[in-house]
């Protein structure tokens, strides 16, 4: 059965390596990398992510700056904070926690359902646009790698982006640390969201069409679909390396929370066929924040020309 790719362990190693480098940098040039996180609104899950990012920074010696803005903040207000961090030399990474409060289409459905069109017009006029917000982050400090210019550079040959988005970067790091060669291999990425699937596909230069048929020819499979247990044992070429990005809750009356988390890959079946596989939880998940720290360190080194 497949070798388990232990993301929890790798993330711990990465964080330890980062802590060592942060200390070296501090000792050599007196500079500590800084990460600014902007949270708009009060979504519980976003608050948890922000808290975890902050804790992870503290643990490796990266200084974190946090701004919490109310749900009804205007686009200008959010951009004002971003601009402040863009020009603040102690900040090397800026991230705006997504999703931002309701955008146009969500307001549209809400208003249509409740027949509130005049209200909709008011909300749309005052509300923010994700693209304008992401565009406002300086590409040199865009540690999430979500600025269209960074994504564009990722897509162009010979033009390195300043940052690779954290979750796909974490997937690559797992393959790398487990000795899975990418060069010359056939890789399939299932899913093409902006934050996971699309950048992952740009890195491995592949496309997904008939997932079942094509996946069965792949040496490397990256699943970022958001559908529990979609990828089955009979989709997989024996010996393939499987990176499961999915985090999907499924009902489980036996669990104290009433649900448990499973990936996009049916672990029970696929682990019998694959050569290596990431579990959920404990695979890609812990790598995302580790890569955020890595991007922040990289940024501070680049800005201060520290090798
Ligand atoms: P998303 O919903 O934005 O994107 C899913 C993508 O899969 C879309 O491109 C969609 O077209 C495609 N898709 C949906 N059903 C499909 C099917 N049956 N066959 C082929 N393609 C299909 O989701 P996302 O943000 O990319 O997240 C995907 C999963 O990864 C979710 O379970 C999410 O919770 C998880 N996730 C994990 C991390 C992490 O750190 N481990 C980070 C982000 C997302």
Tell me about this structure.
- One of its GO terms (cellular component) is cytosol.
- One of its GO terms (biological process) is tetrahydrofolate interconversion.
- The protein has 12 helices and 10 strands.
- The protein is α/β, with parallel strands linked by helices.
- Among the domains are: 30-101 and 130-139, Leucine Dehydrogenase, chain A, domain 1 (Rossmann fold), CATH 3.40.50; 164-286, Rossmann fold.
- The termini are far apart.
- Bound molecules: nicotinamide-adenine-dinucleotide (NAD).
Total number of beta strands: 10
Residue-averaged pLDDT, rounded? 91
Bound molecules: nicotinamide-adenine-dinucleotide
Quote the CATH topology of one domain: Rossmann fold
Helix content: 40-55%
Distance between the termini: 42 Å
Q: Assign the CATH superfamily of one domain.
A: NAD(P)-binding Rossmann-like Domain
Structural class label: alpha/beta
Shape: globular
Can I get a quick summary?
This protein has 307 residues and is of the alpha/beta class. It has helices at residues 7-29, 44-60, 75-86, 104-114, 117-126, 130-136, 148-155, 166-177, 197-204, 211-215, 267-273, 285-303, and strands at residues 3-4, 34-40, 63-69, 93-96, 187-190, 220-223, 241-244, 248-251, 259-262, 276-277. A 5-stranded parallel beta sheet has the order 1-10-7-6-5, with helices on both faces. Strands 3-2-4 form a 3-stranded parallel beta sheet, with helices on both faces.
